[in-house]
Amino acid sequence: MRRTRRALLRGGGATVAAAAVLGLVVAAAAAVPVLWPHDAMTTTFGSILEAPSLAHPMGTDGVGRDVLARFGEGARISLLIGLVAVVTGALAGLLIGLTSGLAGGAVDEVLMRVMDALMAFPTLMLTMAVTISLGSGLPSATAGVTIGTIPWFARVARSETLRITALPMVEAAVALGMGRARLIRAHVLPHMVSVLVVQATATYGSVILSVAALGFLGLGARVPTPEWGAMITEGMEPALTGAWWVAFFPGLGMLIVVTCTSVLSDRIRDVLDPRGSFSGVKGVT
What we know:
cell membrane; mainly alpha; membrane; transmembrane helix; MetI-like_sf; TAT_signal
C-alpha cells in the first residue's frame, strides 16, 4: 500500500492536483448540505436570479433557490449514484465474467453473446432505453447506468479469468487437486483486483456523465431535485437572459469530476499495470 501511494505521488503534479480537486468536490458534497445555511429546496421570490455575491457565492436560480446549496446536494447525488452504479456493475460483471471464463463451452458462448448484444448499443442509448422502460426518476436512472456498465466489467473479468487460469502456477494448483472455489479465492480474485480497480476508475466519470445526460433529458432526477444534469436544463432559459451562473456551476462540477477521475484512472493504470497488459480496460462511452 505504501509503495503504491509513493508511486502515485511520483506521477507528478497533475495526479496530486486531480486528487486534491476531486477531494474538494467530495468535501463539498458532504459539507455544503449540512453546513451551508441556505437550503437547496427553499424558494425565495425576492432573490430571483441574483448574480454571485458574498451572500450567494454561486448566485440564485429562477425561483430564488441558492445555487451553491443545490450544487452541493447535486454533487452528493451524482457522486453517490456513480459509486452505486460502478460497484454494482463491477460485482455483477465479475460474477458473469468468472462464470463465463471458468465454465467455458455453451455457458461461455451464451453469456458473452448477451454481453455483446448489450455492447452493440451505444451506452447512453442502452441507458436511456432501460430508464424509459422502468419510468423516469433517479432509481430508474441508477438502474439504467448500472446495466450499461455490466458488459464492460464482464468482458474484462472473463479475459482476466482466462489469462489467470492459464498461468503455470494455477495449472499446477489444479493438478495438485485444488478445488474450484479455493482456486478462485486464492488465485483468480487476488490477481484480478487491480484490473477491476482500473476499470472502475475509468468507468466512474462516464457514469457521472450518463446520469447528468439522463437528468438533462428529463429521464433522471425530477424537478426540483438538485441533480447536476437537471440543474443545467433549468439554467438554459435563464442563461438566455444573462443569468449564466445557474447552468455554469453544475456543468463546471461535472467537468471537474470527469477530468480528475480520468487523470487518476490513467495514473492508477500506470502504477498497477506498468507493462500495459490491461488491454481490455476502457471507459464506458
